[in-house]
Amino acid sequence: MFVAVVMCVGVASAGHTEPKPTAKELRKELAELQKRSETMISEYYTGRVELQKVEKVEKVARGNLRRAQQDFERAAGEIRLLAAEQYRTGGIGAASALVSDVDPTAMLNGLALTQQLMSEQDAKLQKFMKARDAHRRAQTSAEKRATELRESLKELDVQKDRAEKLIDRIKDRIDLLYPTPGARSADGTWVPQLPSGPDNITPRMRLVRQLIAQRFGPQFGIGCYRVDGGVQGGGEHPLGRACDFMLSRGGALPSAAETRRGDEIATWAIKNARRLGIMYIIFRQRIWHVRSGAWAMMSDRGGITANHYDHPHISVY
User: pLDDT tens for residues 191-218?
Assistant: First the structure.
């Protein structure tokens, strides 16, 4: 049932011999790799479900084997007691047969009853032995299958990690194909840009917005230009130099998965800050500035949105 998907991660990186593949070529390569990765992830979770079932069978088999062993030992003990009693009473009967006041019929009836009981106990013992052996085989089979599944999942997990890293590298290569709009001054600082276009944001901010949308998929909304600067007043929104990447709607706290997406966006922005002219990032009541290169806590502004728990805010120079 479990199918191991073999990923040839070297194919993607070696598939193009041109020194500078185009964005279209890289996106095609990325789409193929993501499709294979999705198949692998599906196989991984199918394997996890099967492993859980097998582990449950293994647990039940262990319990059944333990009970069968206990029943076997109890029946064996009863047979030993009956054998000892037969030996004891048989010995007395044999010695007493010479005594006139001992009834031989009663003695024989007692022996027959003991032998019948021993025969019944022996049949029960044979039944317990069969059940014990069957449970032992079931447990061995379940343990073997569980071991195979764990090994397959371990290998698939390694392949999945490799694929994810390769996907990230291809996405990085796609990002690098886009030169940062604008110029730097002699001292290395970014020359300010004016907003333009129907979205009323700067070319630099527009590129950051485009790359985040391409890389991290659809958000619950991306808000950039607005007349007021929000809670803090002023700011870069009215200048077209800031965008909010919403993770939830209506001021609700985002889910754990969406919060992770926000963390990934912030991590990406930090990684590309100097190249793309990103000035600072705000997320989860913290601010990261390119000058300090570190996160710092912010004062409480009184709400989920105001404290940026439901969206990363990115400002550019």
Answer: 989 999 999 999 999 999 999 998 998 7
